[in-house]
Structures are given as structure tokens and as C-alpha cells.
Amino acid sequence: MSDEWKASAPDAGEEKSWKLLEKTLLAGVQEQRRARRWGIFFKSLMFLYLFATLALFVPMLDLRKGAASSGSHTALVELRGMIADQESASADNIVGSLRAAFEDDKTKGVILRINSPGGSPVQSGYVYDEIRRLRAEYPAIKLYAVISDLGASGAYYIASAADEIYADKASLVGSIGVTATGFGFVGVMDKLGVDRRVYTSGEHKAFLDPFQPQKEEETQFWKGVLEITHQQFIDSVRKGRGERLKVTEHPELFSGLIWSGEQALQLGLIDALGNTSYVAREVIGEKNLVDFTVQDSPFDRFAKKLGASVAEHLALWMGFQGPVLR
After folding, report:
1. How many Å separate Cα 210 from the centre of its chain?
2. What's the CATH number for 63-325?
3. Which of 112, 139, 264, 324 has its CB 3.0 to 4.6 Å from that of 269, i.e. a possible disulfide?
4. Hey, where are the domains in the chain?
């Protein structure tokens, strides 16, 4: 055995030992990573399981805050935000809350507390009709609409079905009108040299397309649709408010203008100034309030935070919004 081989042999053995140690350490690190990934996976799975269980069982509970209250009470139903399907102020939620309030044998009176800019004429009309039906079915129970900051358009449409309407002197009330908004991109497309191609099976199928020039006959047709919706709004308000409206002295009442609570009182849009506590205590005679407003389940609240519906975003992207009571 040469001296040169003897000198290099320990170095080779040492190198092998280091490689073995390196492989062992890498294997340990990989195992730790694998274990950590599985741990995260199982924790996520457990979280989803618990969340799904909560979503299934919470709706089975009575989601009206004060439904278990004993003794006579004033039933409270909140109408807050945009009136639209899939929103907290949807017709289904409001109608369900009102029915529960009227059906409770301890309800002495019902307050519909409103803070809304309006919204869908269909959803508003549904609630309006149901209020009138409930009033006829339960004549001993009065329903009072109380407007806080804002009771405009579709929200006032609904309020007009109540026995009486109250508001603060600075509340904003009215806006009896209809609007449909959109954008036109024809000029932009001309500048960019973009050619719009639309294929339809009906002559006017694409008449709301924002990428095509407006046609006078289609514009007049759409205005007619809005006029009919506006007239339906006016007729419902007249039916609900009756002779209390000062239309003769103020013909602009149905023009879409909005008024302060103090002005609304003079116009006959509301009956008196007052808030929820005042109406419960002084008008209904029962200061004990029980909230019958349908509450979203935790799952629903979580889902809403993820974003609005794809259809709504698509409509906004296209620059079109359907008729809205404003």
C-alpha cells in the first residue's frame, strides 16, 4: 500500500460520512415539512367540518333576537340597506319577519324601522302588498313605519302601506320616481377602431347594448316602461296615504324630489315626527321592544363577504342597471 493511498483513504471515508449525515438531515427536514403539510391539511379539514356543522344547525335556531321574550311587546322589524333579492333587505326576509311579528299573540303593535335608499320595484311591491294583507288579516295590530336617516324611493313605497309613518325632522323622505342607468361606449369604440358584432333573433333584442348607437324608437319604448313603473309607484302611494297627501298644493310630490322630515310632514308624506322609542312608548303604549328581524346565518354572512353575485358584476361591467325606484 503506497503512502499516497494511505493519506487519501481517511479523506474519502470522511467525505462519505458527511454525505451520509447530509442525507440524514435532509430526510429529517423533508419529513418535518411533510408532517407540517399534513397537519395544516387536517386542521383545515377540521375547520371546514366545524364551519359546515355550524352553518347547518344555526339556521334551525330561532334567529329573531327577542322572539323568546315573555309578556306583551312592540314587535320591531328592520329594513336596512338596498332592497334587492339576496340582500338582507330582500322581500323574503322582510315579509318573513313581518309575518312572525303579526302572528305572535303577544305583539301589541309592529314598527317597521326603515333606513334605505330604495331598490327593486318588484321586491318593494311584494313587501307593500304583504303589509296590506297582514293589516287586513290582523286589524287589531297596527303597523307603524319609522324612518331614521333615509326612507327614499322603494323604501318609501313600502312605508306608504303602513297605518302611519314617523320620521325625524332631518330624515330624508320621498324620492318617488324610477331610474335606469347605463353607459354608452360607441364613441370610444370608434376611436379605437373596434367593430361591434351582435347576432340576435329579434329586431330589438339588443336594444340595451351599450356598445351600439341608441335608436330613437327604442329609447322611447324604454322610457315608456319606466313611466309605467313610475305610475304603479304613484298609484300605490296614493292608495296607502290617501287624502293625507297634499298633491294639489304640491304637484311636484311625485317628481322624484326628496324632502326633509319636517318638509315631508307638511306635504303629507309622513304623519308625525318621532323615533322608534317614541312610537313604541307613546303611540303603541308598549315600550318593551322585541326584534323579529330575520338574521343572516354565519354561513350567509361569510358568503356575502366573499363578494357580490357574478351576474350583478357582469351587468355593471356591461354598463347597465335595471329599473330602480329612486
Report:
1. 26
2. 3.90.226.10
3. 264
4. 63-325
